[in-house]
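Exercise 4. Each item below gives a protein and its sequence. For each, produce the structure-token representation.

Item: Ribosome production factor 1 (Loxodonta africana).
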Amino acid sequence: MAKVGEKSGGGKKGLKRKAAAEEPQETAVSGDGTAEGGVQPPKAAAFPPGFSISEIKNKQRRHLMFTRWKQQQRKEKLAAKKKLKKEREALGDKAPPKPIPKTIDNQRVYDETIVDPNDEEVAYDEATDEFASYFNRQTSPKILITTSDRPHGRTVRLCEQLSTVIPNSHVYYRRGLALKKIIPQCISRDFTDLIVINEDRKIPNGLILSHLPHGPTAHFKMSSVRLRKEIKRRGKDPTEHKPEVILNNFTTRLGHSIGRMFASLFPHDPQFIGRQVATFHNQRDYIFFRFHRYIFKSEKKVGIQELGPRFTLKLRSLQKGTFDSKYGEYEWVHKPREMDTSRRKFHL
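Answer:
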């Protein structure tokens, strides 16, 4: 009678022999890719047509295959670039011009309200609008900066730093006083603009800009706020020189109105000796504010150093007259479901 474990193959030793027999034998491969003896090595399994990497169930294997695919794509792209570069060098001056890459900005949907610089109607409107007295040098800016009721430290510091950017600006803290009561007091004290910074959960999230005494009033959503201490490699605190102002890419009638509102905050005749510049850059209806100091290193090179603060604005509404949330007449209101139907359509 046979004992337990005494099977054909000798128990564990038999199992080892069987596993060794099933293991593939190593074959030396020559330099041309053929195995010694003329035997071809097994080829990598190719995916069937229409197969997607996302169909691989194993997460690690799927990630590995996707990484290899991305690397192959980069190699092919780099090889195509090198080939094109050699062809252009061979052609020399006869080489065709480089193609302009497609972006959301240059594929923008045509807007009928884009302003022509030579349009007489636009020139007449700007000569008679609410900002005409500023651009005709009849008034000089005087700005009041305030906050929402009972502000926290971050909002207060933003107001203080903003007052160092805008000359002739004054910071006042609200103590339960409504905006409708603040505006008549500003007008009586010859303020030309009112800036209100709102906050939510101790974070600045909104800005109201009202031009006095007859408006208009713009409401912006504020995001990506960075104070001076939070900016890496920032320069020293700004001086009291009047800064230069750059308004970039405000092309429509609405964009012109917003750009003129920002321009009317700063006095005429900037002091170039201070080498300070405030920039309002509009890109895809987001207005990026930056404050820099520049220096000319040579005739062709310029160095810039950010001073802060920085933030991003998104226009929510433009209202005629001064702030009136109940009976105010709105020139433009952002309606996401109706206006944001295309990524290539912009309003500023």
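Check: The chain has a mean pLDDT of 85.
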